[in-house]
Amino acid sequence: MYNFILQIFIMLSLGVMIYLIARVTPRVGDIEEIFKKQPLGDFDKLIAKIPIGEIDFILSAWVEKTLRKIKLILMKWDNLLSEHLNRIKKTNGNNVGKEEKQTLFNKSIDEQGDDKIL
After folding, report:
1. What is the overall mean pLDDT for the chain?
2. Whose CB among 1, 92, 107, 118 lies 3.0–4.6 Å from 111's, allowing a Cys bridge?
3. Which domain holds residue 52?
């Protein structure tokens, strides 16, 4: 019951919004005509001469190149750090000694002897 009332309320709200938008829509054309009729000032003419499309293209190309360069620098830095970590890992492994590290799959000498069946 409450879902039905909620759906009716939502549909009425949507209908009211569409009605309000439809009433305001013709005014938009009137506003554009008012601005077109006014003469442009010197500053407006100067702004109109600026090639915004070309500036946007050049700026986006520069940003793309810059981001690619930053990506390459970060990748080189990552490789350098990985090599350094591997060197540290190797030196730490050699300093520990010749002892074999215990893992789940390696059995110690005592455990291997217990598995024999007599």
Report:
1. 79
2. 107
3. 44-93
